[in-house]
User: What shape does this take?
Amino acid sequence: MKRQEDNKIINGLSAREVKMIAWLEFYKKYFFSSKDIAQFFKGKSTLYRGIQKLLKKKRIIKINQNRYYLIPIKAKSGSWSEHPFIIIDEICNGEKYYINGWASANYWHLTDQVPSAYDVYTTNRQGVKIILNTKIIFHRARKIDKSKIVTKKIKEHNFTIINKNGSKKWLRLRE
Assistant: This one.
C-alpha cells in the first residue's frame, strides 16, 4: 500500500515527468531544449516519446523547432502566461528580429492601446502563430537595420524592439 502512494501520479504525470518538471522549475528553465532534459531519458527515442507525451498532456508547448515552454506544476488548470516579448525572443532564438507596431508604441508609452497582436519583423519566418493566447504576426524583412533597433530587458530577459523614433514614425503612418 505504501509503495502505491509513493508512485502516485500528479495530474496524470508519471514519476519521471514530475521529477523532470520539478528539476526544470527548480532551475527556472521555463524555456528549454531537448538537450536540457536528455538526462532523464535513456536514449533519443525515449526522449522524443517523453516530449510527445508532455505535449499531449499540455504540460509543455512547442515554441520553435528545438525550444519548448514548460507549464509549471503550480498551474493546476494547465493554463499559464508569459510576457509576449519573452515568447517572441524565444521563438526567434534572440536574433534577427525586432518588435514593431502597436506593441512598440505601447512599450514606448506613445499610446495607451494594448495590442491585440504583436508585429514581429524577422529575416527567418512569416505568418501568424498563437502561443499562450498571444497572437504573433511575423513579417518578412530582407535586412534588419541595427541603427533603428534597441535591446531592452524585461524580467531578466533581453528582447529587441524598434527605437522610439521608429515607433513614432510607424504611429504617424497610422493617422
Notes: The radius of gyration is 19 Å. The chain has a mean pLDDT of 87. The longest helix spans residues 44-56.
